[in-house]
Amino acid sequence: MNHGFGGQSIDYTAIMPVLIVALGALGVLITDLFTREKRKHDLLWLSAAVIVIALIAELGLWIGGASTKPRLTFCLDSGHSTVLGCSYSADSFSLTIQTLLLGGTLLTVLMAPRRFKVPFGEYHFLILCSLTGAMVMAGARDFITMTVGLETLSLPAYALVGFGGRKRRGSDGSAADASTSGAEAALKFFLMSVASTAVMLFGISLVYGVTGSVYFADMQAVLHLSGYHASILTTGMVLTLAGFAFKVSAVPFHFWTPEVYSGAPVPVAAYLSVVSKTAGFAGLILTLEIAFRTEIHNLGTLIAILAAVTMTLGNTVALRQRSAVRLLAWSTIGQAGYVLVPLAVTTWNGADLAKVPVGQAWNLGPAVTASVAYLVFYAAMNLGAFGVVSALGGTLPGGGELADYRSLSSRQPRAAWPLGLFLLCLAGLPPGLMGLFAKVAVFRAVISGGLTWLAVVMAVNVVIALFYYLRWAAALFAPVTTAPAVAGAEAGAAIEQRSALSRSIPLGPRIAVGLALVVTVFFSLYPAPAFK
Amino acid sequence: MSAILLLLLAIPAAGLLALYVVPREFASRIGALAGVLTFAVSLVLLPLFDYSAGASFQGQIDLSWIQALDLRFHLGIDGVSLPLVLLTTLLTALCLIYAVRTTTRDGKGRAFTALLLTLEIGMVGTFISLDLLLFFVFFELVLIPMYGLISHWGSDDAHGGASKQQSAMKFILYTLLGSALMLLGFLVIHAKTGTFDMVLLQQRHGLGITASAQSLAFVLVGLGFAIKTPMWPLHTWLPDAHTSAPTVGSVLLAGVLLKMGTYGFIRIGVGEIPEGLHRYAVALAAFGVVGIVYGSLACLAQIRADGDLKRLIAYSSVGHMGFTLLGIASMTQVGIDGALFASVAHGLITGLLFFLVGGFKERYGTTDLFAIGRGLYGRSRRYGALLAFAAVASLGLPGLAGFWGELYVLVGAARPGPGLSVTAFHVYMAVAGIGMVLTAAYLLLVVRRVCMGTVTDPANENVLAHDSDLTPREWLAWLPLAALTLLAGLWPAVVLAAADPAVHTVLGARG
User: Fold this and answer.
1) What is the mean pLDDT of residues B68-88?
2) Is the dihedral of CA B139, B141, B143, B145 positive or negative?
3) Closest Cα to residue B291, out of B227, B235, B225, B350?
4) CB-CB under 8 Å, B177 with A430
5) Please, where are the H alpha helices in B78-206?
6) Which segments cross the bilayer (chain A) (predicted)?
7) Which of B38, B57, B108, B495 meets the CB 3.0–4.6 Å disulfide criterion with B76?
8) B82, B49 Cβ separation under 8 angstroms
9) Rounded Cα distance, B61 and B128, in Å
């Protein structure tokens, strides 16, 4: 590499996975032009292949030692610190998150249900574009790159949400009312997202005004040296974080989540809940733990309150949900709260973390490790649950009513058992050991950080959440009862929905659920890799 | 010995796999086989256990499982856990044998047996794990199987009380709250000491943790165990769970699951954060004593038309476990010996009582005290005799197992550990004495109501067809419990030989 003044050298190896996905997106679009209408469903496999190749490239970077010796690229001497300001870094943090993003997208692409009605070429193109943005966010080490990544992630997502079907006015009134049409959901998503991005850009500009740099590492160095604490800086930081809070659907930026999830096609909802959210968390972690590290004491309290409110609201509202996707939507809000918890930790067994300068993202400390590990586990279990819902109820409004899933084990045992396991993982109870370990990691971070109150709030939340996860999981295994006598039309619709849940599952979702299951079982027995 | 400990977990696990390999008709028999095999293997511990070193942890296995969480797969037993492990394997084996017929009949034997075997892994694991986090994992593992047993094989309350799903949900939410707080307590201990190793923590005996941190840890950990034990006023899940649970569910719930609470108090409360326990001992004892009296009064209240015999025994558990709490809170050798003995005795006796009540349920379709008829002596002589035996054992007749535990506890309360208010404990002792009298009162009333009197047919009509004395299967499942009750009553050293030196060490005495 040539770190000359003025000229930038680009390390193409470091950005290879991103390039593959971006070029793959174009490839899918072009292939679409030459594919007959009937065969378009098979673009799914092309899209999956692109992701697998990118995963192999990612693996190559791991083996090439990027996790111990980071590959920095797009570097400039910004004049603020002794080191070069680099915009993109392929280190263990970015590689973990990118692998997670790729794996998550792979599962979402595969989980398309039978009779999935979207324009496939555009659908896969948009997903891959959005994925490119997400991956850039994980590697970004300055605010400009981060914002570009964020926008690349979001713009295709609006269109993806818009692929959701029109509102159905079925005979089962409540179900139809609860589901939002795709266009309406997309519009809501778009407006709220744009507003939050605008707020975030304003925040970034304030922070830039104070520090004079957009590089995360530089900002930390500047703030560390100057010890500058002005209210304008705090305002800028809070506004910046708000943009990420929207992406991870933390309270009070969560309103879009249930609406958008239930309006969007189920795989897109799964994509938003895992890939988009993980990218948001990656951005949040980088910003908070590198750029704003010196200020984490002020921000930590804010994050702690945000986490407590987010999980409590998410879990309590989830108690009342009756459609599968809405329940999962609120549960992801609750889960986001858990991921936020370790980020509120500012001390570790009495040592002040703000005093420990962290130049790069590969040694962010044990608290952040807990968050990242939680994200990894969350991706597997949440995608698994979404995968089953998508495969069975993907064509029903809102993924089907919870009541439709009753006694699923007698009709579809191969779907019921994994779904039961994923739900128990989300609840964090054995035999869902993976979820249990994830929660233990988070609890441990917060206890070591001395935030006992937050730990107790989270403990209560775990109990609340168990109620709705377990109710659903138990219903799956309920003995078959003779159908209650209901009025003709209503019963007819209910039976139709149930029989929709009894159809055989296509190959794609089978692979998706199977992969999620393998990962879940593996991490349940040996979760160590996720903590590195 | 390590191999035996591993086998205790591996045999049920292997049985679990076998269940899903063989045709489903054999499921319950495979389960019974696995249960008996596990019990037989656990019996091998008796000659292998080195009684001269009963205080030290034997047969240790220590493997790293998850380094990042400091979770180690660390097993071992000492004199405190040995009796509880044997109690667990015995009761599970008996339950699995007992369940063979009931479950083959309804054709869902596979899932039922699978839940019982999972339960066994969790219960045994809790008693033999020597890593706080591993202990927590096993502690949590019992929740889902027990939930499944109650919610899918239970029965709704006949008198408009909780439905089986509600009872099951109440059970799991309560205990999960407890165990989540318990986990926080463990993490506080870890944050202060940097280790989850229970052997090390017991050696240090609270050294290196400040008194305030110990208090915090004890409140968190103690809440978890108090819900499990259960301690008044956190017991409200227990009567519902017992009333709804199927027979074997009740037996294991009362026989083993409650002991996980006592065991936790002794092992972690007394052994690892003694200063925390010391600070709250007087309060803990007070709750225990209130539980004793409350439990007996609630039992007396059940002796009425519509009174439920299963519920009555559930309340009696609250009373009996109150004694164990009092013994633990006295922080004396004899008190904790008593608590441990009472736990084992309660497991045997209450297990037997729940089996007997389950027999009523099977015969008459109800456990309503006034609907199961009178004059059981006249109708089924042996059944009546066994019920009377279990009842007098439960009320603490000398010569039976129920006696020693509570006597020791009272002796412990008479001379509480250093620094504890003697006056308070004397008052507790007196109140507990009143509780014992009340216990005798309701148990004798039950015996009079059910066993004596002129023979009347149970209110239920199609009863006479099922009215029979003990079946061979019932003999097989119940007699061992009765025999052990007698043995432990006549020769308490069977439990205490191993336990006494271990309790000595847990209390912090060296050498």
Assistant:
1) 89
2) negative
3) B235
4) no
5) 81-106, 109-128, 132-141, 143-153, 164-193, 198-204
6) 12-31, 43-63, 93-113, 125-144, 189-216, 228-248, 268-292, 299-321, 372-396, 416-438, 450-470, 476-495, 507-526
7) B57
8) yes
9) 10
In the predicted structure, residue A313 carries a pLDDT above the cut 90: yes
User: Cα distance from B110 to chain A (closest Cα, Å)?
Assistant: 13
Q: Looking at the partner chain, which of B66, B118, B176 has a beta carbon nearest the beta carbon of A462? A: B176
The pLDDT of residue A4: 43
Of the two residues A205 and B110, the one the predictor is more confident about is A205
Angstrom distance (rounded) from CA A332 to CA A187 = 21
Across the interface, do B180 and A463 touch by the CB < 8 Å criterion? yes
Which pair of tokens denotes residue B491? 């020769």
Q: What are the contacts of A524-528 at 24+ separation with CB within 8 A?
A: A524/A425, A524/A431, A524/A432, A524/A433, A524/A434, A524/A437, A525/A433, A526/B66, A527/A373, A527/A377, A527/A433, A527/A434, A527/A437, A527/B66, A527/B68, A527/B69, A528/B66, A528/B67, A528/B68
Given a cut of 80, whether residue B496 has pLDDT beyond it is yes
Could you tell me the residue ranges of all domains in chain A? 16-165+181-531
The answer to whether B17 faces chain A, any CB pair under 8 Å, is no
Q: Within its chain, how far is the Cα of A145 from the centroid?
A: 19
Q: CA-to-CA distance for B379 and A26, rounded, in angstroms?
A: 85
ipTM computed for the complex: 0.86
Q: Under an 8 A CB cutoff, do B143 and A430 touch?
A: yes
Please give the residue range of the domain that contains residue B311: 2-506
Domain membership flag for residue B511: no
pLDDT number for residue B298: 92
Q: Which residue of B has its CA nearest to A350?
A: B191
- Which amino acid is it at B141? L
Burial B130-167 (b: 16+ CB within 10 A, else e): bbbbbbbbbbbbbbbbbbbbbbbbbbebeeeebbbbbb
Contact criterion met (CB < 8 Å) for A452 and B181: no
Q: How confident is the model at residue A487 (pLDDT cuts 50, 70, 90)?
A: very low
The answer to whether the CB atoms of B181 and A459 lie below 8 A apart is yes
A372-411 residues touching B, CB cutoff 8 A: 373
Question: B390 near B349, Cβ under 8 Å?
Answer: yes
Look at residue A25 in the predicted model and tell me its pLDDT.
92
Strand A347-348 to A351-352 pairing? antiparallel
d(CA A202, CA A97) in angstroms, rounded, equals 27
Count how many residues are written for chain A: 532
Whether the Cβ atoms of residue A438 and residue A373 lie closer than 8 Å to each other: yes
Q: Residue A497 — very low, low, confident or very high, per pLDDT cuts 50/70/90?
A: low
- Looking at residue A204, its pLDDT comes to 92
Chain A residues with beta carbon closer than 8 angstroms to that of B126: none
Give A295's Cβ-side CA count (13 Å radius).
29
pLDDT of the residue at B102 = 67
**A463 to chain B nearest CA, in Å?**
6
pLDDT per position as a tens digit, A277-297: 999 999 999 888 888 888 888
CB contact under 8 A, A444 and B172: no
Pairwise CA distance, residues A505 & B179, whole Å: 38
Angle at A375 between CA A374 and CA A381, to 5 degrees: 90
- For testing contact with chain B, the best of A369, A421, A440, A523 (most B CBs within 10 A): A440
B348-361 pLDDT tens trace? 999 999 999 988 88
Other CB atoms within a 10 A radius of the CB of residue A5 amount to 6
CB contacts of A474 in chain B (<8 Å) are 147-148, 151-152, 165, 168
- pLDDT over 80 (residue A351): no
Q: What is the 3-state secondary structure (H, E, C) of B23-57?
A: CHHHHHHHHHHHHHHHHHHHHHHHHHCCHHHCCCC
Q: What is the DSSP letter of A288?
A: I
Which tens digits make up the pLDDT trace of B24-67?
Answer: 777 888 888 999 999 999 999 888 888 887 778 888 888 888 88
Kind of pairing between the strands at A85-90 and A71-76 = antiparallel
- Rounded Cα distance, A252 and B23, in Å: 54
